[in-house]
Amino acid sequence: MPWTIEAKYYEAxxxxxxxxxxxxxxxxxxxxxxxxxxEVMSGNRDGVDLSGAKVAMAVKWxxxxxxxxxxxxxxxxxxxxxxxxxxxxxMAEDPGLPFEILAATLSEVKGPFEETIEINDNDxxxxxxxxNSFEMQLQTFTDPVSGEAHEAHMVLPTGFIFTxxxxxxxxxxxxxxxxxxxxxxxxxxxxxxxxWSSENRxxxxxx
Length: 207
Description:
Layout: E1 3-13, E2 32-45, E3 48-49, E4 54-61, E5 70-77, H1 80-90, H2 99-104, E6 106-114, E7 118-120, E8 127-130, E9 134-139, E10 141-142, E11 149-150, E12 152-155, E13 164-177, E14 180-183, E15 188-197
Parallel strand pairs: 5-6
Antiparallel strand pairs: 1-2, 1-15, 2-3, 2-4, 4-5, 7-8, 8-9, 9-13, 10-11, 12-13, 13-14, 13-15
């Protein structure tokens, strides 16, 4: 089913600043544990307007993401019609990046939990909260000498989640739901605007 999503995107993980997963595919500390959230600015699937829908995910992989065996918890804050349209996208039943790749690395999905997702969109100081089970607080870098805000970017021309994101850190990155938990403040964070669609697909494997 064709679909499109334009969204504000928030990410925090347990990697050191910059997140080497985006350069060499392997996390800073062996395992990968990360939170993402997004709010749809505009989007459509089969005539369903996805604008305003919010999604949060927390995923734990025992090694690098591409090695698989990840366990994810998923939250959704949307109308019933939007949720019915979103879930096939998130689970890659409707192909398209980034979920076509991410779903292939998961062995278990907890949820989707239908809860209010609070997002305070404030660039690299944005915050996301889902009750007591998910909390992400991004934090802008500051120059250690002047104390002024310091802007840094991760640019990935062929990135499947984002192609340009502002790098930041976190003061909170905490998840606890259904036995699924981690707490990784002070590590890597990203803030971006993303464009995803069913037309953006995985490249075919040759050979």
